[in-house]
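Aim 2, interim progress: modelling of the pyridoxal-5'-phosphate-bound target.
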Amino acid sequence: MHKHHNALGLATTLNPVDPVTLVRPHAAARAARFFVEKFPGRSMYAVKANPSPELLQILWDNGITHYDVASLAEVRLVARTLPEATLCFMHPVKAEEAVREAYFTHGVRTFSLDSLEELEKIVRATNAATDLTLCVRLRVSSEHSKLSLASKFGAAPHEAKELLFAARQAADALGICFHVGSQAMTPEAYSNAMERVRAAIVEAAVTVDVIDVGGGFPSSYPGMEPPPLERFFETIHRAFESLPVSYSSELWCEPGRALCAEYSSLIVRVEKRRGSELYINDGAYGALFDAAHIGWRFPVRLLREPDSRARDMEFSFYGPTCDDMDHMAGPFMLPADMQAGDYIEIGMLGAYGSAMRTAFNGFGSDQIVIVDDEPMVSLYDDAFQEVASNVVTL
Ligand SMILES: Cc1ncc(COP(=O)(O)O)c(C=O)c1O
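Predicted structure of the complex, ligand included:
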């Protein structure tokens, strides 16, 4: 992989024709250390957010030892990249063959489930193994999150008792897990979900060994600036301590976005301007899926030397494919004198950005360059930490 000092220098000296993904290993390392040191339990990494082997290695080197995998391809990838890592297969609906290979070939012992059918599948596929950690996923609200995960998975309140009871019989260790939705904007998302956990434990009257609060930890995007992560940790810690099983159970979390959003950004070139619309060389089928399909706004900045002195105005983007849907409404704030040939850095694409790229219509590029400047926004930098230090610590 090539290295360069910073995004501006790269754009202005190399004038790249295709989009370039910038990666910042120090940003991912800092996020990993933050979770390892401050989350009051075990932090796993949800591999789906960004399965880059280099990133997996950085997270491992900085203390992340457990990985939430959701497909057999992810199981194989992490087993190959980090042979010492512990894998937890946290997709509640799996192919029986996938469970079998995960258990017998890759040593996976932790599986999630949200139905009796899935429990039977896991028991069959592992030949009724006696060393399983089975995590029952409860359905919880996504009302405080920007991306809902409330419809598809999770046992409803009236199903939880029977499922917990059955899983307890089959499991060596029993867990309860949930996901509050991605980019949760307030810690209450977790305290509310923990109330669902409490109700389920009390109703089923089972002993529980693991409480897994899932992912959902936010990053910072324009118009979506969350409170410091410490507040989330503090709320979760308090809610966990008040559960009847806290004395005998472990607390886990499975962040994806928060561990890798700051890891990468993208340099794109403007190929045409039409009023306030910029035609750029990456888009909905590239790393900007979320910008196009869910209207997510990402931080942007012009990479030009000397810098523009024009005032910022609102722009939208068109991607390079021949499809009207390849459109990112933004608005993205950039200088009013933007023109064809300008380079733009689009930040915070480390989570669910590079991971979703396709080569549709012949566009997209695999160019990746390591840079050592700071990400455009950070939840983990000094300025943010000063705000966070006013928060009561655990
Ligand atoms: C089971 C599970 N865990 C963790 C995550 C990671 O979520 P996030 O990136 O919001 O932290 C997801 C995302 O879909 C998930 O489905």
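Residues 99 and 125 are 6 Å apart (CA to CA). The two ends are 40 Å apart (CA to CA).
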